Protein 1
Amino acid sequence: MAGKRSSFSGTIGFVLAAAGSAVGLGNIWRFPYLAAKDGGGLFLLVYLILAVTFGFTLLTTELAIGRKTRRSSLSAYRRLNPRFKNLGILALIIPMVILPYYSAVGGWVMKYTVAYLTGNGAETATDGYFNNFISSETEPLIYTILFMAATAYVVYRGVNKGIESSSKILMPILLLMIVGIAIFSMTFEYTSDDGVTRSGLDGLKVFVIPDFTDLTLDKLSITIMDAIGQLFFSLSVATGIMITYGSYVKSEDNLIKSINKIEIFDTLVAFLAGMMIIPVVFVFMGQEGMNHSGPGLMFICLPKIFSSMGTVGTVLGAVFFTMVLFAALTSAISMMEGIVASFIDKFGYSRRKSTAIEFVICAVVGVLVCLGYNILYFELPLPNGVTAQILDLLDYISNNMLMPLLALLTCVLVGWITKPKKIIDEITLNGEPFTRKGLYVVMVKYIAPILLMLLLFKSVGVF
Ligand code: PFF
């Protein structure tokens, strides 16, 4: 298997697989809780601006590097410039840090899916259910390992059979469900004990309309820092994954069109997930709930929506969590695929051996993440205002430190050493028009590196 490289069977297969990597827990679980934490509208505005400038620049760069070098990230950077070969190692480490905690959250989703499928969905809406679950010692562990095993199985079977075929069916269904639930969540209304009535529409306003009153420089910089981290995470960039996926794209495929589609699809799903969850947080918990939302948000809010729908809610909950589980799996698969492809390219290991090695590493760290909510519990304040356990800590290290570092060095390499022309030539290989060419050059050479440098300083607490 170390010999011939796999390739996607066509553009649609590639777009869906890349979108399958991009769309996952980042959109449905991570985006809404960060948006709630950072005040809704302001986060959304910053995120959208960054997506069409920054996100687009990184996605374009990485897919082009992959297709040009025909290598996974571990060796692609060396091909581009031997002095930058260590970026390949960084790109390998990042998904190795993310995958264990991603799988832990994937395990939570699996638990909820099972609860709904076995008719116990209503229980998940009771107070304290989520916290009791994650602080129990064995159950989260079992689900995390199961989630990892499912991921490893698909990766072991290979790119075409596993990744493409599952993405083609599941992504469109997931999108339809999110739209339906988002619309429903607008209709909520609730009067709290102190007599304040809040509606889903008020919550929608909090999500889409930025509030600039009381905006301080510190709050803005935390919002930008969170938004950039989320953008990396959501688009699966600065992880080497898109380089690896780019290496499977055929030369005659139109990369620009594919990039636009991936970007639009990913941002749309994140936006809709926000519409689905934020109004409900606001209705039931008000501004206070928004400020204190954390990784558990989705698991506390969505069951409330479903339980208010009665029996229909139980069925919808079952379908919904199953879809989220698949979205999480397609993303986890892409992460493991990136790592496994690097092992194959670099060490010449078989796919089976590479998958087994990564599975073991991931399982060990994943167990620690789960124990972070019970035996290994601690509270560590981070510069972005989060009180971290092991999960948040790994999330912070990957998204706020390692990914910006890799993105910064990639921009330096492409912007200043190999020069943007190399990327542009690859993107326009078949004479495709590249309308954002000027923006791309300015971003990759100047704006992105400066922003990333500031972000890195902020993340390590320099200011
Ligand atoms: N983009 C995925 C999501 O939004 O859930 C997560 C992810 C996949 C992050 C692949 C990083 C990665 F390399």
Note: Residues 21-22, 24-27, 95, 98, 233-234, 236, 239, 241, 331, 334-335 surround 4-fluoro-L-phenylalanine (CB under 6 Å).
Protein 2
Amino acid sequence: MNKKLRPAVIAGNWKMNKTPAETTALINEMKPLVKDANCKVVLCVPFIDIAAAVAAAEGSNIEIGAENVHFKESGAYTGEISAQMLVESGVKYVVIGHSERRQYFGETDQTVNLRTLAALNAGLTAIVCVGETLEQRELGYTETLLKFQTKMALTNVTKDQLKNVIIAYEPVWAIGTGVTATAEQADEGNGYVREAIAEVYGKDVAETVTIQYGGSMNAKNADELVAKTNVDGGLIGGASLKAEDFSIIVKAASK
Ligand code: 13P
């Protein structure tokens, strides 16, 4: 396997944190710290912070993402945001199917697929999240579940569109808990995702897809995680809210 076939991407997922003013301040703090990155640097921020984030990141190597997107182009969907709205706001990436959305907001494999297609059709890069719960892991379903979630999310996604897909393997038991998967567990989980992609699109194509690890990745454990063959960067929650910690993770992925 050759990691050079796919770019490493470090993406922050700010979740429901930071006001627009705080967004400007944090990005201004981060810019000089990540400017020499040898990987892609993305910040996925709350919808209300997008304008401030795009303005603050302008001219830097930081790209801005959103945390969700609706699958319809427009219409009577109070409170929702379309892919075209994101594109026009300067957004390049969007997180889809995060476990918190699956857990608290009724997201299903079907809606994850529809959102992925909507994002790709609008020219966005989709960061699609998959991951097992602790119960599913203990029952021995990790591989089955990760492959199923990956294939469901990518239904009707063409080989060409796959260039704009990143998969983030985020074990639910490692999110926001301070419990990180071991580097071996992360590599194995990401490997299952890559196998699922290979089963549908072929091995050569699967080798080109960026697969991140997410779940309590931080300044201390990033080095070990991103060194693994199948770990092409990370989707970072808590540690992406601290400029210095985030920049250390970016440096780890830049080696
Ligand atoms: P933490 O890094 O806070 O565990 O969050 C991970 C995550 O959910 C990123 O999407």
Note: The pocket of 1,3-dihydroxyacetonephosphate is lined by residues 13, 98, 170, 175-176, 214-217, 235-239 (CB under 6 Å).
